[in-house]
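Database export, one record per block. Field names are fixed; values are copied verbatim from the stored entry.
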Amino acid sequence: MMWRSKKNPDDGEEPAPQEDRPGSSSQAHTREEPNERTRLLDSRPPPPNSDGYLDPDDPAVSPYNLWSVRFLRYFTVLFLVITFLWWVLLLVSIFISPPGMHSRGSGFFDFSYTTLTIGNLLVAVVFFIVPAKGLRITTAIVSVLLLVDMIMILSVPRLRVEEGWVGIASVIWATVMAIWCILTDRVVAWGKREEEERLTGRPETRRTVREWTAVLIATIITSIFIVITLLMTGTLGLRARDATLAMTGDRILVDGDKYEVHLACLGSETSTNGTKEPTILIEAGEHPSEYGLEPWAYNAWQNGTISRYCYWDRPGYGWSDNAPSPHSAGMSADALSEALAKSGEQGPWVLVSAGYGSVVSRIFSSRHLKEVSGLMLLDPLHEDLLHRIGSPGRGFLLWGWGIISPLGIERLGGAIFKGRTREDRVYGKYAYQNGRFIKAQLQENLVANSLTRNEVRSARNIQSPDTPLVLITSGIRAGSDAEWESKQRDLSKLTDNLLAWDTVPKAPHEVWKTLEGRTKMEDRLKELVAAARNAEAEKEA
């Protein structure tokens, strides 16, 4: 813009108008520092010896002068707010499932995708005015990985069912927002160059130390995002692989068709003489039934000790979906009852349970008094000791472990370097690394000392005193924990019909892990089945 003085016919120069004179309010206004909301060029004169262009360091040289750039920034902030609200809702749903928000998977994957989205948007907002090619490249890699995740979830039926609409929406939103961040950075870079060319005569290629530091920090952060997304993609691939593992039995929808539980039965309902045999109903402890108890029951069936047995996976264990939160032992007992009814299975039942599973079995027994013909408790957890699994510290650790479970560091390392199989991850020794398993443990922790404790205390008052009872205790556990041994003694009085209480000296908490423990379990089960047969015969007579 050219500046010219006005001529006066008398003295050769016309006085400047009042508003242009030094000290006038108008001139003071035009000399204010420009900001992102002022026009690019105002009526102030250029600096001395200027060619009409602004200095590159002038604050007026900013991409914020373009409405397109401002538009992108406003919407990026809006998207960040929306994502944060969604993140809070997902965080709450881990502990209390809002209506329609229940995920049949762990709920940790959708939470992780949303956390990653917040990270991408925060980088875009904080480093908005410092566009960089490296930042666009790293974010593009994240976008590609998220796109792969989205395709996997949508194309693998089991993943699609487990993640549900919540997980699908979260990964799609994460992908779209990553692409948005790339677009935003590209438009800001274009706007910066356009404004520099128009106001300074050339695009600025220099960067200040502050700008280089910002670029470095942003690139490092997005590089970390690449590693996180890569690990999540690998873990999702393992989940897709594990979904192909064949299972015995069926998944059955329960609780108003909100989720599925796995139930399997093996053997004949009648004996050789045509009488109805009691069915052994297996309730696992702190691990899926398939890891320990079910193989033992299978051997007992092969040996002829029992004629038929059924086993299931509590919600979150083995092949079962996670249930909505909160979820107590009584709710598990109800889910088992519904699954048995839907599959057409009928008693009489002999309940064999271990550890925490004994709590579920006792509640189930109190709600099916006429159908339960015997109880076999294997180193059971007493209701007065539920505080051990319901401590806040344990809950916090489970929550933290669940949050990082989508990274699958142990699972990926085990599969790649140690040759761990699908069986190991689904129901075996390393099932504890599964996000659904962690969520189930967290759910048990949250209500152990409240809902579950009240349910099992009520069950004890309802329990029939005539039900045959066998109690087998871990010698190692009882010898090292006086309180545990005392509570085992109390559980031996659960009914008035105690057939046997055995303490296996060298057996751990999972007593079937020793030969002596397995032998003692099978011998006592034979006695319990015989007592159940006699009881059924007396009823028929």
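Remark 1: The radius of gyration is 35 Å.
Remark 2: The domain at 250-391+433-540 is CATH 3.40.50.1820 (Rossmann fold).
End of record.
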